[in-house]
Amino acid sequence: MPTPKPPAASLGWQHTSLSDLVYRRLRDQILWGVISPGSVLSVRTLPEQPSVSPMPVREALLRLSVDELVEVAPRSPTRVTSISLERVREICEMRNHLEPLAARLAVANLGPADVEHLRRCLKKMDLDASANRPQEWHRWNRSVLRLTAHPLTDGGLAGFMADWRKVPKAA
Q1: Is 71 helix (H, G, I), strand (E, B) or coil?
Q2: Angle between helices 85-106 and 134-149 (to 10 degrees)
Q3: Are the C-beta atoms of 133 and 140 separated by less than 8 Å?
Q4: Which residue, 135, 132, 134, is CA-closest to 7?
Q5: Do the Cβ atoms of 79 and 70 come closer than 8 Å?
């Protein structure tokens, strides 16, 4: 099976800074397996373009460490972390409970155009799943999640869902 390519950087996200662009590109490459677990990431060798200085790369690596996608340690190389099968199961379990709840809470605030957009996204997700196109499916899934979380931006469930991964792990 060929290595999947990360989704394009322009999936509806607004990049507010060069650091944000570098962060999203690296995050996508890690999550899609383009950059393998255990790989060393260097501030000096990562910039893909000569116009990218080390500072945005350093900031992106620190954000990735908060997301637990890389391990940053003093006087040690920054490495892509491995994710355990148990962690994947934990994340799936949380998403299985939180996403339907978010959708139920959001539906009262969706207008007819939102509902039609949601229907189109779900149809496209079904087609992409049937055709084994995971990147395209992921793109539409992001759109659905943004649509259902948007009405919840008062800091309630949407805020919790955005911040749940920052809760320290139990020892």
Answers
A1: strand
A2: 50
A3: no
A4: 135
A5: yes
On whether the pTM is more than 0.70, the answer is no
Which residues in 63-83 are b (16+ Cβ under 10 Å) and which e?
bbeeeebbbeeeeeebebbee
Q: Which ranges of the chain have pLDDT less than 50?
A: 1-2, 6-13, 15, 165-171
pLDDT tens for each residue of 130-151 = 998 888 888 888 888 877 776 5
DSSP percent split of the chain into helix, strand, coil, nearest 5? 60, 5, 35
Q: Measured between alpha carbons, how far is 85 from 166 in angstroms, rounded to an integer?
A: 19
- 169 in Cβ contact with 114 (< 8 Å): no
